[in-house]
Prior knowledge:
The chain is α+β, with helices and mostly antiparallel strands. Helix content is about 30%, strand content about 25%. The protein has a four-stranded mixed sheet. The protein has a four-stranded mixed sheet with strand order 2-15-17-16. Strands 4-5-3-14 form a four-stranded mixed sheet, with helices on one face.
Amino acid sequence: MRLKARFAGPLSGRARPPGDKSISHRALIFGALAQGQTEVEGLLESEDVKCSAEAARQFGAAVERTGEQRWQVRGAGGFSQPSETIDCGNSGTAVRLLIGAASGYKISARFDGDQSLRKRPMNRIIAPLSQMGARFDTTDNRLPLIVHGGKLKGVAYRSPVSSAQVKSAVLLAGLRAEGETILIEPERSRDHTERMLGVFGADIDMVEIDGGLHPRVRPSELKGANVYVPADPSSAAFPVAAALILGKSEISVADVLVNPLRMGLYETLLEMGAKISYEERRDPVGEPIADLIVRASPLFGVTPPVKRAPSMIDEFPILAVVAAFAEGETRIAGAAELRVKESDRITLMVDGLKACGVDAEELPDGMVIRGRGPKSVRGGAQIRTMGDHRVAMSFLVLGMASKEPVTVDEAEMIATSFPGFVELMTALGADIRPL
């Protein structure tokens, strides 16, 4: 399916993006590991998250949709032997967290995914889990693979990358390992696993090592809990970005997760001159939430610090689009992780920006965008997305503010993270239509 976005004037109104994908995956997986009943409100009902729901069933939990964005998980206190391959579709979060969790049990589980997921590196979790005692059958450390779990020993693992997926896999394995397990990473990645493990009753705390705080977990039995899923800040980034670059726009984005370790994009946008305010701050169940008020803003290029990259790794594509409408140079570095996401997002974004008339170039670990201000982007391109949902949505936002319409291919993949994207943007005033 192809979608075309064209200029439609200012945006206005109020929107509530879908539930946070990271928290949704964890709610289902932790509920399956726990003893007793877990009630989840606000779950993201995307293709990626549905893979976690089906995997939870295959590992022995009872999983039921009880209403719109309301789900119930009845866990049996751990994973049991699945009878079929665990298909994780396009979801790197699902496969890495599930492999980590399965490693703690005396089971053998086969994992697979779509062609995109089969290309993504699994050695980053295979290495620490092998140190703990798990065994793997795999070719080139990629999917499909079989994990043989049980009889793990805790480790203090120094991860070469700051990755919440790696951290989560190790901590979940540590729930069933002898002794304590510590995950040390170069910069703190998003901490939803640590927060939610506490809600589910795990023995988890933070320890200071080399001047930084790092999570430590000891063997624990999880207990069912109630989980509220706020709106995903990565999804909120698209209407926020569109409002900033479309003159005279003013929108409210409701119920957004404002966890400090997820706010790198928003910190960067404020440094660029964005008019974003936070209202109605609250903290219902262990995660901070706020409503965002966003107004069109004159923006200028910046260089976000490398240490901020882990807190905005999923938002670099939409930042690149915003940078195209800013005055001056925006330099993104420390983002080599973008090359091993659903696609090589660095190459795809730079190629697409150039096709739309933007001065952009690749760096080994990022990109440089030289913006020429509002109304400066020609557009008019047909964008190759390689099935990457964030690339597709980013260029649709670009098409909303460029001189000529922009078309993206393989737009059906947007449903992996943001079901209802077109409807939400259209309700705010966008003109996005299928071809």
